[in-house]
Amino acid sequence: MDREAFQERFGLIGESAALKQVIDKIMQVADTDITILLKGESGVGKDITARAIHSISQRKHNDLVIVNCGAIPEGIIESELFGHEKGSFTGAHEAREGYFEKADAGTIFLDEIGDTPKNVQVKLLRVLESGEYFRVGSSKLRTTDVRVIAATNKDLWNEVKEGNFREDLYYRLDTVKIKLPPLRERQDDIIPIFRKFVTEFSAKYDSVFKGFSDDAKDLLVSYRWPGNVRELKNVAEQLVVLEKSQFIDTEKLQKYLKGRQHTGSADNLPVLSRDVEQNRSQDGASFGAGDQQLIYKALVELRSDIGDLKKMLASFLYSTFSGKNLKALPQNIQDEMQSSEMYDIKSDVSETESESLGVQSFADADISEEEPEEQNEFREFFNGDIIPSIEKTEQFLIEQALNKFDGNRRKASEALGISERTLYRKLDQYGLQ
Hints:
The protein is of the alpha/beta class. It has 21 helices and seven strands. The chain folds into three domains: 3-181, P-loop containing nucleotide triphosphate hydrolases (Rossmann fold, 3-Layer(aba) Sandwich); 184-254, Helicase, Ruva Protein, domain 3 (Orthogonal Bundle); 297-430, no CATH class. Strand 4 (132-134) and strand 5 (141-143) form a beta hairpin. Helix 14 (289-321) packs parallel to helix 19. It holds the Pfam family AAA_lid_14. This is Sigma-54-dependent Fis family transcriptional regulator. One of its GO terms (molecular function) is sequence-specific DNA binding. Residues 12-241 form the Sigma-54 factor interaction domain.
């Protein structure tokens, strides 16, 4: 069987060099009984790979037993793997064979092997080396003939150094290691895989997918896909079902890309292009055009964030401090409020909207000598000695706007100069209620 036939049989879409290397290695070792360790992030397809290896091995006519070690409670994992005798523990009403016994003459796939408890790792090492094991509650030695495929999304060697994983078991498992590349390292494969999923879901749900724009296509390729192929499949299904018969542009697609859930997360940043890798020397010291493009994109995003924050600050200051003591603000803030750019923001608000938001001109503002507590808090927050981060400033303004309008999000978003949709997203981002 050649590589193309292998890919077609098991639905492994893609022409990237990384995928070809993985398939070549699988075909090289599948027909042996050697232990294999699959390494890769969550969602890269470790289970599919294990099934493919078993299906072209000499054991393909016997069972493939799949065990998720991380999903089995610590108290019963030994019984699940090796079986138990009747009466060996409370609730053991009858004898039961374990997974290694069921997989005899076949293959056992131990997924998330890094989550196995230390006391069970000793017994795993024995069965891997000699095929021998004991059922829980039994002194009778049993044997099994299984081919072991293990998988993990952890750095097992780091787990060894931290004392969470036995070193001898690590060396026993690490006979042949196959590293499954994340989707962001297979950019050429993203569109073909996406089209495959869309075709399948369109047939399943009797839906029509109208395609997507060039910008949406670029976003699909540049997105980091922290959930890898699993996340890509989920997005394809949502688009087919929820955006039925719609042409997908960047705005529609962005709603389903959930990589950035928390402040500071970089999951939705574009990945390095192939040009970046080609422009780097072996010591990583060179600086190529790809690096410049990445930095430029990051600066554009940062400028956009700062611009939105500046507009939000201006709108909020107009609505909050009109009719109050403007001297409560630091001088640099007062000067900035009177700049043409901020004045333009105020001038965009109609007279009716201004009245509803309490916005007045500086000439009409009532300047008193007393400094209200709210303004004093604002002065401390914008103290010239300590410059708060963009995130803290943004969060503060949102909290103040919600307090001012008694939690009315529509009025708060108007005062902040942002849409309600953006406000909802910010509330979720900062964990605000």
